[in-house]
């Protein structure tokens, strides 16, 4: 699902990262920083208000693409990802 969700990635402190495509098995993450293939990362995801729930999900970088990096969740379908995919509060790009 195409989205535009700001996240924090443990490997790139202080750099803006955005989930651009989200699925139960992983995501496409855009970052201004070079992320190394096969790196294990923590992705901090925050649900939009009024929920304001935060979760840190473990993932690894599985592919590098021109538009970002593909990550795979270490645990299939993390709860916060399922909640995001179901949430009417998530804004999808036009």
Explain this structure to me?
Helix content is about 10%, strand content about 50%. The relative contact order is 0.26. It is globular. A hairpin with a 3-residue loop joins strand 2 (about 15-20) and strand 3 (about 25-30). The chain has about 90 residues and is mostly beta strands.
Distance between the termini: 12 Å
The geometry reads as globular
Topology pattern, helix = H, strand = E = EEEEEEH
Largest sheet: 6 strands, antiparallel, barrel
Structure classification: mainly beta
Order of strands in the sheet with most strands: 1-2-3-6-5-4
Radius of gyration over all CA atoms, rounded:
12 Å
What's the number of extended β-strand segments?
6
Helix content bin = under 10%
Question: Mean pLDDT score, rounded?
Answer: 89
What proportion of the residues form beta strands (DSSP E)? over 45%
Tally of DSSP helical segments: 1
Low-confidence stretches: none
């Amino acid at each position: 699902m195409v989205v535009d969700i700001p996240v924090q990635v443990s490997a790139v402190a202080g750099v803006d990262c955005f989930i651009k495509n989200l699925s139960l098995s992983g995501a496409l993450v855009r970052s201004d920083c070079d992320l190394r293939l096969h790196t294990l990362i923590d992705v901090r995801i925050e649900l939009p208000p009024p929920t304001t729930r935060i979760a840190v999900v473990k993932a690894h970088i599985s592919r590098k693409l021109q538009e970002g990096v593909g990550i795979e969740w270490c645990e299939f379908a993390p709860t916060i990802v399922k909640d995001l995919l179901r949430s009417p509060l998530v804004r999808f790009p036009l």
